[in-house]
Amino acid sequence: MRLRILDKYIFREVVLTFAFSICAFSAVFIGSGTLFKIARYITDYGASLQAVVKIFIFGLPGVVIWTFPMSMLLATLLTFGRLSSNSEITAMKSCGISFSRIAMPAIVIGFIVSMGAIAFNEYVVPWANTAYRNVLYYEIEGNNGMKSQEHIILKEINGDKIQRLAYARRYDAEVQQLQGITLQEFGDDGKVTHVENADYAEWNGDIWTMHNGMIYDIASEEGKGEHTVRFKTQVLPISANPKQIVREQKDPEELTMKELRAQIDIMKTQYVDTNKLEAELYQRVTVPMASLIFALIGVPLGLQPTRNSSSAGFAISVIIIFFYYALMTMGNALARSGTLPPLLAVWIPNLVGIVAGIVLIRRAAR
């Protein structure tokens, strides 16, 4: 019973400090970033109050997701620093409670926060980022959706099966052209049955017309021949107009992990470099998992005898956070440049954090 009371006590202290830290860090990010952008939108575009409120609300999830790890670190540092300075940790150990048992509630909270952050990053942040972009682009900047973009992907889906997939390396808004086009049609078994490639497609107001391409009919059974036809012009069988095409495209931060994986697979079939998208995909897990890693680091550091004030705890957390995000930036650069495999490069800061946390916990447990 005494251990259950102890668990609840530590759990409550960490959670309260964690909630305070989220509010504090979010306020810093909002004050230094979001409010500055809002002020610029008002002065440059005359944004309405309604649009400004939408921008503020839709921008919050993208800010909060980055505060989870640093808030977890600060919460464990402050909580265990206060318990240590008040000799409560000494009293617990004198009752025969091991360090690992004392640290367990905080580590469990770190795991729960990490799992919750992964779900938040999957279901809330992409939706909010899309809503943010739409408000900014269509309501504040007043654009009509005609802008050039790279890597255009259009899908026609029946139920849960893709019937037709169109990929273009670039959309040129000035001449309304899709460049470097590949069209794939799929059978009921999910295999490609028909492929069309073209140098470019033009929009004439009603349809897309492809120019200088090849048609490949792929045999569905072994032993049957495959047909190839070259053409000068051919209608591209998609009904979306340029505005709809551009509006349907999403930036990587607007895609869920499932959508990112699908887009990576599509782009790999076109031999397009996917390092940037792969780094984004793996960071959807590594950044939330930092909450657990920071809990492993924060608990033993909070017990250090030199940590006798909240200001010292905040200073230590800032140093660790800076070092972690510096490693994350380096890993992201290595992933995007292809120097290291994206999976390994993006996990560098977390691997370093895990090693540091294990070393610190083993020292504190002695």
Description of the molecule:
The chain is an alpha+beta fold. Helix content is 63%, strand content 17%. The protein contains 10 helices and 6 strands. The chain has a 6-stranded antiparallel beta sheet with strand order 1-2-3-4-5-6, with helices on both faces. Helix 2 packs parallel to helix 8 and helix 8 packs parallel to helix 10. The longest helix is centred in the N-terminal third of the chain and has 44 residues. The radius of gyration is 26 Å and the shape is elongated.
Topology:
Layout: H1 2-45, H2 49-85, H3 88-94, H4 99-123, H5 125-140, E1 149-158, E2 161-172, E3 177-186, E4 192-203, E5 208-217, E6 227-236, H6 242-248, H7 257-269, H8 275-302, H9 310-337, H10 342-365
Antiparallel strand pairs: 1-2, 2-3, 3-4, 4-5, 5-6
Helix pairs in contact: 1-2, 1-4, 2-4, 2-5, 2-8, 2-9, 4-8, 7-8, 8-9, 8-10, 9-10
- Helix content percent band: 55-70%
* Global structural class: alpha+beta
Uncertain stretches of 5 or more adjacent residues: none
Number of helices: 10
Rg over alpha carbons = 26 Å
In what range is the share of β-strand residues?
Answer: 15-25%
Secondary structure tally: strands = 6
Biggest sheet descriptor: 6 strands, antiparallel
Shape: elongated
Strand order of the largest sheet: 1-2-3-4-5-6
Q: Between the first and last Cα atoms, what is the distance in angstroms? A: 26 Å
Q: Please tell me the overall pLDDT.
A: 85
Characteristic key phrases:
alpha+beta, 366 residues, single chain
